[in-house]
Amino acid sequence: MVEKNLCEEIKRKYYEEDKYPLSLGIEIVELVPGYSVVEMEVTEEMDNFHQITHGGAVYSLADTAFGLASNSRGPAVAMQVSMNYLAPAFSGQVISAIAREEHITRSTGTYSVTVQNKKEEKIALFRGVVYRKKSN
Length: 136
Hints:
With 136 residues, the chain is of the alpha+beta class.
């Protein structure tokens, strides 16, 4: 029950205080302990000079899912992340990022994030490790 309440508190804080992902239109679809799904509609402003979605926009979506999932069990900060881009996204698409907890200890957590389009075609794979801060 404590973790469920924490997820509700994180959602509230996200929509009130997390200005950067909100400026990209990133919405929380699901948040439960160790797992999150977020999505955004890709706009023309997110295009790069190849007329595909800028890697930074895709990264921001994945990082948001990672941050939500990892903080769902208490305060956590990123220690290391990596991202592999597999296919392009295009303006007009809605893309989502699904973050899953893979391993957790008292002090660290490891997460995998899949970015995909509505056809469930993979766009990117993200992996991250967090340091789990002690709660006050």
